[in-house]
Design brief:
By secondary structure, this protein is mainly alpha-helical. It has one domain (about 1-90). The protein has three helices and two strands. A two-stranded antiparallel sheet has the order 1-2. A hairpin with a 2-residue loop joins strand 1 (about 65) and strand 2.
């Protein structure tokens, strides 16, 4: 019973990580075209990604040659966490 609960929680966390990676990718792609900041979708993406970007920028410098690498660093970090959790999932 406990194993089933842990498996369900791990699947939920992995799904959230997967979806958040896509939110980051969409937000990064939208930043290239400078969308209307009053658009509700753009505002939602900004609210979802900016706290994580701010955290990464506080830890390490992310702007190189005028390009912000915070989304890339965040995606790689999420991929690392995802692989780690999947390896725990196999151990169960």
């Amino acid at each position: 019973m406990i194993d089933a609960l842990l498996i369900a929680v791990l699947n939920l966390v992995l799904t959230i990580i997967f979806l958040y990676k896509w939110v980051i990718i969409i937000s990064a792609l939208l930043s290239w075209v400078q969308p209307d900041p009053s658009n509700p979708i753009v505002q939602m993406l900004y609210r979802l990604t900016e706290p994580a970007y701010r955290f990464v920028r506080k830890l390490i410098p992310t702007v190189f040659g005028g390009m912000d690498l915070a989304p890339l660093i965040l995606i790689f970090s999420l991929m690392f966490i995802e692989i780690f959790l999947k390896s725990l999932f196999v151990a169960l």
